[in-house]
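Saturday, quiet lab. Running sequence design on the C-alpha cells for the scaffold JK sent over.
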C-alpha cells in the first residue's frame, strides 16, 4: 500500500516479481515525488491478510476506520498502479488477521543432507502440497514424534527416521522389543495424536531400553516371522496385522510369541511383492538384509 505524491490518494496492490537484475532498483509505485510506501509484506505463497485502516478526521467524514481484505485485490505485475483504497488521509494501518494462501498448496521437499525443508522441486524427498493449517510429522529413531509447520527456517535432528505430511487418521503398525517383558516382541497399531507443534511424545513406552524393530504406515501390512536359536526348527509364520485392534499410541500392544524370533520380513502383499527383511541381533537392534 502506498500514498501517491501527486494526488495524495492511497493505493493498494498485490504484485509478483518474476525476474530481477542484480543491483538494479525497481519502483513499485508510480514514481511520483513524495510518494511513500505505507504498508508492505512479502508472501511467498500468495497469503492475503486483512488490514484495518484509520483515517484522519475531516469535515463530513463519518466513518473514521475500515477494513480491507487483500484477497479481494487481483495480483498483477510490479508496475501496476493498483486500486485506490481511499482519497482521505491515513493515520494508521494495522494488521487484523493473517490470511491463507490464495495460490493453492505450497509444494514442499525435505533434504536429508542438510535436514531442512525447501520449495525447490530438485531438493530431496517430496512431501506434498501444504496449505496454511497443514503440518509435518517427524518421527525419530528413538520413537519420539512431534509435528512442525513447513517453514524454511526449520532444522531437524540427524536421527530422523520418518518425515512426512501429517495425517491424523494414518494407522501405524509397530513391532517393539519390550524391555519390561524380557525383550519379547509386541505388535501395536495406533494413530499418532498430537496436541501442539514441537511437543515431543514417544510411542515406544516409558522404558528407554525398548527397541523399535519395525514401523510402517502401509494400509494392510503382513509380517513374516522367522525363528532362530532353539526354535529354528519352527516354520515361518505370516501375521496379518489387520487382525490386531487399533488403540492409542501409549498402549503396550499384543505379544507375538515367546519363541526366539530371528528375523521379521514385511510382506506388503500376499503375493510376497515388495518385501523388506530385518535381522534381529542379540541386542534388539536391526540389520537390514
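Result came back. Writing it out in full:
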Amino acid at each position: 500500500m502506498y500514498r501517491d505524491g501527486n494526488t495524495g490518494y492511497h493505493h493498494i496492490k498485490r504484485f509478483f516479481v518474476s525476474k530481477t537484475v542484480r543491483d538494479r532498483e525497481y519502483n513499485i509505485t508510480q514514481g511520483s515525488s513524495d510518494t511513500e510506501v505505507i504498508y508492505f509484506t512479502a508472501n511467498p505463497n500468495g497469503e492475503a491478510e486483512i488490514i484495518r485502516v484509520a483515517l484522519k478526521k475531516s469535515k463530513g467524514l463519518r466513518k473514521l476506520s475500515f477494513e480491507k481484505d487483500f484477497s479481494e485485490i487481483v495480483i498483477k505485475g510490479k508496475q501496476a498502479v493498483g486500486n485506490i483504497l481511499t482519497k482521505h488521509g491515513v493515520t494508521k494501518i494495522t494488521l487484523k488477521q493473517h490470511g491463507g494462501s490464495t495460490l493453492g498448496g505450497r509444494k514442499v521437499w525435505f533434504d536429508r543432507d542438510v535436514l531442512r525443508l525447501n520449495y525447490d522441486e530438485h531438493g530431496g524427498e517430496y512431501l506434498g502440497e501444504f496449505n496454511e493449517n497443514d503440518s509435518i510429522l517427524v518421527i525419530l529413531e528413538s520413537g519420539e514424534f512431534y509435528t512442525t509447520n513447513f517453514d524454511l527456517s526449520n532444522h531437524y535432528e540427524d536421527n530422523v527416521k520418518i518425515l512426512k505430511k501429517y495425517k491424523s487418521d494414518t494407522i501405524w503398525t509397530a513391532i517393539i522389543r519390550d524391555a519390561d517383558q524380557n525383550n519379547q516382541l509386541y505388535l501395536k497399531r495406533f494413530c499418532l495424536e498430537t496436541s501442539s507443534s514441537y511437543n515431543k511424545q514417544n510411542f515406544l513406552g516409558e522404558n528407554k531400553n525398548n527397541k523399535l524393530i519395525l514401523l510402517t504406515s502401509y494400509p494392510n501390512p503382513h509380517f513374516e516371522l522367522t525363528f532362530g536359536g532353539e526354535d529354528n526348527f519352527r516354520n515361518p509364520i505370516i501375521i496379518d496385522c489387520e487382525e490386531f485392534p487399533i488403540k492409542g499410541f501409549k498402549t503396550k500392544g499384543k505379544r507375538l510369541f515367546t519363541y526366539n524370533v530371528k528375523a521379521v520380513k514385511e510382506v506388503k502383499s500376499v503375493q510376497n511383492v515388495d518385501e523388506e527383511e530385518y535381522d534381529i541381533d542379540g541386542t534388539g537392534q536391526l540389520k537390514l538384509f
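Notes for JK: The chain is about 0% helix and 40% strand. The chain has two domains: 2-97, 167-288. Ask whether to fix the surface positions before the next round.
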